[in-house]
């Protein structure tokens, strides 16, 4: 049996989950097609997914599929479309062999689809495109193809057409019915194919099929089919096309040949990971290697428990490309998007993803109603952050509070809802907090700092320094004079303490403290250091009121709304001090709107938008807080 792992990617509301549902129906895995509106799809099983009509976490489905050129087991991976859950998409890319990118007819390629296409190109995953909703928009897909060409840098190949009677035709089933120009596109990307085609006077070899087979993997050919996920038109043909194209081969790197795709928790099964073996290996071999590598405190005899996701039967030999489940083991580190690792040092690395996880500017403070229930809630939160490393948890021992960081407003709302499920225990939580800092304005200010006490008999000594801005959010200190270590430590800690609270009460960043000279007085060193600390704290803070400004994360939003609703949406954005970047008329009476505003101003906007438009939410949003991408909050 040949296995093929196929990811389905799309902009939110383009029909990705509907396509997955139709594929399961066509393969005989389900007897009836569920709908997002009715909340009965196979992919969206969480209560939040059903209520909101969006995918929140990745789902995996295995289906048998028979073609004229072989039998396959297709492992369908249905990914979330909302930007808050983007980390789940990037975690999957190393294991994706082929990608189906769903595009919506009657529209240009939308923002989230554009973003995921750029990531698929970078990961060199072969792509097959499916223009969905042709049952609603008919032949209105020219704009889609034009914007697709702009993103890819070359023209995609349209391999579907309607016959004179209006019936859809697809290239794999009827290649002879397609124009000569289409056939030339399938071989023109490869000079050797073109030459071989010219030299084959007998016409016995169909080089167009060879080109279609190898072109997507080489990143030279982008086939496009079209149809309707809702009615099923073109879905079976799409799967045949995907299987005909050559898959990406996984990178064979050193270490355990197992990629971790996702982590889950099941009440009966416990903690487990969905994993993708890149080469054949037995659990016996892994166990033997682990016995030599993992410290005894972490080693569990026969601890590699792999099971089949369909039958839950134990697996002793992992087949390349066949997704399996791995039960949690204290001797293993299973980071989504990374290879499985052994835990090899005394304490074991913290179970958080590496530095590629950018801390989120969104957070919420959590406090149990009863202090003796803190461990209960801490356990639930740790379960949430284990399953989705996009969340981060901070335990504030001094106040008894817990702080949950998330990737966005929706991400945090769903996280809170999930930990509160199936319990009558009460939990208090704050509104969503937005990270803020004070940024030093462009300046370079020379200061002379000194503090006297005890009727001017004691002095800190005269410190000459320059306070200047940096190019980022960093805080730096530089010494251009040789000083005793105790003095340097006192100056550094005093400077950092002064930066903790600026004029607006936030941490000050983006500044450098450059020490030019220091005349240390005679006398007791400890008294001198104490007075020096006061001089620096007072002198540096004195500069903040007129030289810092408050900044926070900036959010960009992209909305597709009916023209009838445009006025009320613009009014609400104006009330939130948003800057409208562009408005243009799309097809089918819709307007495409892009705007940006401080993230704190847009809290609740997604829900308000759904109310204003009777169901339509934000199509795409991005929130970032970097030295190049931020919003000024007030002067």
What does this structure look like?
With 635 residues, the protein is an alpha+beta fold. It folds into five domains: 2-178 and 219-244, P-loop containing nucleotide triphosphate hydrolases (Rossmann fold, 3-Layer(aba) Sandwich), CATH 3.40.50.300; 258-342; 362-430, Alpha-Beta Plaits (2-Layer Sandwich), CATH 3.30.70.870; 438-550, Ribosomal Protein S5, domain 2, CATH 3.30.230; 553-634, Alpha-Beta Plaits, CATH 3.30.70. It is 29% helix and 29% strand. The chain is built from 17 helices and 37 strands. Strands 2-3-1-4-5-9-6 form a seven-stranded mixed beta sheet. Strands 10-11-16-13-14 form a five-stranded antiparallel beta sheet. Strands 19, 20, 21, 22 and 23 form a five-stranded antiparallel beta sheet that branches. A hairpin with a 7-residue loop joins strand 17 (332-333) and strand 18. Helix 8 (191-199) runs antiparallel to helix 9 and helix 14 runs parallel beside helix 15 (525-547). It is globular.
- Average per-residue pLDDT, rounded, comes to 87
- How many H/I helices? 17
User: Which class of secondary structure composition applies to the elements?
Assistant: alpha+beta
Distance between the termini: 65 Å
Helix-residue proportion: 25-40%
Biggest pleated-sheet summary: 7 strands, mixed
Task: Give the count of structural domains.
Answer: 5
**CATH class bucket of the largest domain:** Alpha Beta
Q: What fraction of the residues are assigned to beta strands by DSSP?
A: 25-35%
- Strand order, main sheet: write it out: 2-3-1-4-5-9-6
Label the CATH architecture of the largest domain.
3-Layer(aba) Sandwich
CATH topology-level name of the largest domain: Rossmann fold
What's the Cα radius of gyration? 30 Å
Uncertain residue segments: 36-40, 346-358
- Full CATH superfamily name of the largest domain: P-loop containing nucleotide triphosphate hydrolases
The number of distinct β-strands equals 37
